Records
---
Amino acid sequence: MTLLAGRRVHALTLTELHEALSRRGVRASFSSVFRAVEHLEREGRVARVDLGDGRSRFEAAGPHHDHLRCESCGRIEALPRCPVTVDPPAPRGWYLHRHALVVSGLCPGCARG
């Protein structure tokens, strides 16, 4: 959980989590990482993030935020401010309780490149 909680990098895949643990000297099988993340997700301590690329990603649960994704290098960052207002407007009769937004483009490094 500590690995996800203090990260500036957002929305890590299970493979990225497994590799990060290995770099820290933590020996854990991929299936152990999978089971631990599933358990933390059921407890509400980890949130699954869908960035539209077909890969399951995870980050520490917390206040709502949306994401920026670089189309070139894959870098992901939290969007500093939510550009979507869901309280109102909503189509008549609808009650909106969540949304997910992924904005894609080029990160500063790739845009300069």
Note: DSSP finds four helices and six strands in the chain.
---
Amino acid sequence: MKFVLRVLITAATIFGVAYLSNMWLVSVDEFWPTAVIAALVLGVANAIVKPIVHVLAFPITFLTLGLFGLVVNAAMLYLVAWVVPGFETTGFLQTVLAAIIISAVSGAGAKLVDRD
């Protein structure tokens, strides 16, 4: 049940970022099924691909004092946009900003769901 709630929170965050930014940060066709599938793919990408990219990019992340982690988060959104039809990114800086907002809001929502 917690997994479903976390996916729905992430999907709502993705849709909210797209809607509130007037499709300037990211573009989503509709909540169901596009944002929900994007949230699932983002979860899989964060669980499988992101740790590998973090290990490979450690020297760059170390030299930039961790700021390259924002680029890695944006790369995960680019991966989602490549896989999910109806979900598009609009530019590099917009994608970085969207990644920051999505990770912060969905992380806070996950903390609310996971507390006992």
Note: The mean pLDDT is 95.
